[in-house]
Amino acid sequence: MARVRIRSTGLYAPGQAIDNEELKHLAGIEFDAARHEAKIGIHARHIARLRGIPETTADFAEKAARAALAHAEVDPQEVGLFVVATDTPEYISPATAILLQGRLQGGEREAGAFDVGASCASFVTALDVVARMMDTDATLRFALVVGVYNMPAYLRPGDVFGWTIFADGAGAVLLERAEESARGYQEGVLRADGTQWNFVGVYAGGTKQPVTREKLDEGSWGLELLQKLPGDRNVKLWPPLVHRLLEKSGRAISSIDHFFFTQINRSVIAEVMAALGEPMEKTTCIMDRYGYTGSACIPMALATARETGKVKNGDVVVLVASGAGLAVGANLVVL
Fold first, then answer.
1. Which residue stretches of the chain have pLDDT < 50?
2. Distance between CA atoms of residues 36 and 24, nearest Å
3. Considering the entire predicted model, what is its pTM?
4. Best CA proximity match to 90, nearest among 113, 66, 71
5. Which helix (H) or strand (E) is 27 found in, with range?
6. Could you give the CA distance from residue 16 to residue 278 in angstroms, rounded to a whole number?
7. Residue 91, helix vs strand vs coil
8. Can you give the pLDDT at residue 2?
9. Closest alpha carbon to 289 in 54, 116, 46
10. CATH class of the domain comprising 2-181
11. Could you give the C-alpha distances from 294 to 104, 124, 140, in angstroms and in order?
12. Where does 237-282 show beta strands of DSSP type E?
């Protein structure tokens, strides 16, 4: 059986990091920075909008993708599939992945391009989909999967919750089809509960609620928190998902070298690792320097771990992500 392996990774975050004290000034908000750092684990983040940087989702995706291609020394013309995983696209239509293909390849090619939107579980969902596509198509040698996030573009003035949590960034993986390799994508698990759609999201701008002057005047646009999210949601979701992934792949938890989780709360990750009976040394947290970057946080954490030597080729890793709506997913990969 062909294996689809991660050839390289790339990461991009716009501008200089903004720490919590500077955030108060730039966003015009007040919050307990010390408590935020201790509980959530976020000390800094990158936000193009607050730095006056004229970059948005497609720019982040392009720069992360170019970094991945450069690390692998692969020409963009060799890529046969471009997938952008995000719920903050450049436009409602056309897909951001189509823009990415155009920027990297410069014109019409025999290449696929589409977006995957599963809230903050978009990247793990896209990775599962693309790995299975490449496994069955011998003509697909290389594919780019880019998780990207630009939620600060949707934040309203004075939104303390939004400004203190969400940030900009992108992480890319270049996938390569390699015949009969022991390394590569092994298995995935996806779960969904669409009855939970009305907790948090960007509800205005689609066909149900077009953006109108009335919507703007009443403040019903951008990121909206309709109901408070349960604080223990991921603590309850992630351990069973990991065990189901291990069951499907026929592996014991002792065989896993490293775990990557949605980077929204360090305290939650610590609770989950304890529930799994695994030490914190076997996970990577990057929310301290990048904030919460949604569908970008898993590939960004993976890129960071590879660059710092926390993971290496041959390591068995588990990727777990949650998104609003509700969408949850996990991947098992041998690097």
1. 1
2. 13
3. 0.96
4. 113
5. helix 20-27
6. 34
7. coil
8. 64
9. 46
10. alpha beta
11. 24, 11, 28
12. 258-261
Assigned token pair, 214: 């009335």
The closest of 91, 75, 88, 79 to 144, measured between CA atoms, is 79
Residue 262 CA, distance from chain mean position? 8
| CATH class of the domain whose range is 185-334 | alpha beta
Residue found by looking up tokens 């709506």 in the block: 325
Q: How far apart are CA 180 and CA 274, in angstroms?
A: 36
> Which residue in this structure is represented by tokens 């928190």?
225
The pLDDT, as a whole number, for residue 228 is: 87
Distance from C-alpha of 269 to C-alpha of 275, rounded to nearest angstrom: 10
306 sits in which H/E element: helix 297-308
The answer to whether 2-181 and 185-334 have equal CATH topology is yes
Query: Which residue in the block uniquely carries the two structure tokens 């992945």?
Result: 97
Beta bridge partners of 147: 85, 171
> What pLDDT does residue 1 have?
42
Counted residue by residue, the chain has a size of 335
Considering only CA atoms, which of 311, 329, 310 is closest in space to residue 241?
329
Residues 262/322, Cβ–Cβ less than 8 Å: yes
Secondary structure (DSSP) of 191-244: EE-GGGTTSEEE-TTSSSS---HHHHHHT--SEEE-SPPPTTHHHHHHHHHHHH
DSSP 139-160: T--EEEEEEEEEGGGGPPTT-H
DSSP summary character for residue 51: H
Residue boundaries of the structural domains of the chain: 2-181, 185-334
Place of tokens 């903004």: 18
